[in-house]
Design goal:
Blueprint: H1 2-14, H2 17-20, E1 27-31, H3 38-54, E2 58-62, H4 69-77, E3 84-89, H5 90-99, E4 111-119, E5 122-126, H6 135-144, E6 150-153, H7 159-171, E7 176-179, H8 183-192, E8 197-201, H9 202-210, E9 215-219, E10 247-253, H10 258-272, H11 275-283, E11 287-288, H12 293-314
Parallel strand pairs: 1-2, 1-3, 6-7, 6-8
Antiparallel strand pairs: 3-10, 4-10, 4-11, 5-8, 5-9
Length: 319
């Protein structure tokens, strides 16, 4: 009997008290972006399934502004108790680290990664009036007119901007960047032909290219997009080694208990395997993630290093 009591006591000692009853109330999911975009959609898709699994509400808290800085800083300052998580993505959690001087948070030191939730792709599109129907033709035109061709982006330091900077750097060409205040205005001007080139998120590109409003030249991932099977990757189209994967993941404030991080990882990984989440991801042109915390940390670290090298090599300046 004495041994049995000791064994039971050891079980309770092994699991810290805060983790035993977690979660006991609503979980706040901060999204450092306004409603309507991919980060918001992913948080709501995963949050809804997570809520069903753990039996507590998951409340999406949109904190847009400052290229994700406002939301990321709010998450950094939250209590590290597992009741605040943040939807981290490539802009605020990788590109900002090399483009924004005096960033008020460190993506690696101020947060603990939980899991990669999704990856996407960008699509290089041109207006139908532009005289190129392949990446090689685009590069040839750009070499004939250095600096004369404009391209749009959702803003300096956005994925659409650095996708093009990486392409021009690798291709040895020069084009002129026209930054907009958001992806919507940039896309609108590309559709109208005011700016002929743009890297567009795959979910936005698919209906526009199928309707003939834009012409797709290449996708940024290492594999073709199933919904655009005839569109090659940038690497296939003439720039071997090129790859840009916009990514989205869940993180918690630094010092969140390891046991709670592990619980969140387990639940989110299960959610990502569910048919409901996979179906909604397919609609948005997303690929499910699921890598464990340590691997996700290394993934973010590698993405930061990639953009740091490009910014240094190409002499890109932040705003």
């Amino acid at each position: 009997m004495h041994r049995l009591i000791l064994a039971i006591a050891a079980l309770f000692i092994a699991v810290p008290a805060p983790a035993q009853n977690y979660p006991a109330r609503a979980i706040r999911f901060i999204v450092p972006a306004p409603p309507g975009g991919a980060p918001d959609a992913i948080a709501r898709i995963v949050g809804q399934k997570l809520s069903q699994q753990v039996g507590q509400p998951v409340v999406v808290d949109n904190r847009g502004g400052g290229n994700g800085v406002i939301g990321a800083e709010a998450a950094k300052m939250a209590q590290p108790d597992g009741y605040t998580v943040v939807l981290g993505y490539q802009g605020p959690f990788a590109i900002n680290a090399v483009m924004v001087p005096k960033l008020p948070y460190d993506p690696l030191k101020d947060f603990v990664p939980i899991t990669l939730l999704a990856t996407s792709q960008n699509v290089l599109v041109v207006h139908p009036s532009f005289p190129a129907r392949s990446l090689k033709e685009l590069i040839a035109v750009a070499k004939q007119k250095p600096g004369e061709i404009n391209y749009a982006s959702g803003g300096t330091g956005q994925s659409s901007h650095l996708s093009m900077e990486l392409l021009t750097h690798m291709a040895g060409i020069r084009m002129t960047h026209i930054p907009y205040k958001g992806a919507g205005p940039a896309l609108a001007d590309t559709i109208s032909g005011h700016v002929p080139l743009h890297f567009v998120a795959v979910a936005a590109a698919i209906p526009l290219t199928k309707a003939g409003k834009l012409v797709p030249l290449a996708v940024t991932g290492s594999e073709r997009v199933p919904s655009l099977p005839d569109v090659p990757t940038v690497a296939e189209a003439g720039l071997p080694g090129y790859e840009v994967l916009p990514w989205y993941g869940a993180l918690a404030p630094a010092n969140t208990p390891r046991e709670i991080v592990q619980r969140l990882y387990t639940e989110m990984a299960a959610a990502l395997k569910s048919p409901e989440v996979r179906s909604q991801y397919e609609h948005h042109g997303l690929t499910a993630g699921g890598m464990p915390p340590g691997q996700f940390h290394a993934f973010i670290e590698g993405d930061i290093a990639k953009w740091r090298k490009l910014v240094a090599d190409a002499g890109i300046k932040g705003e």
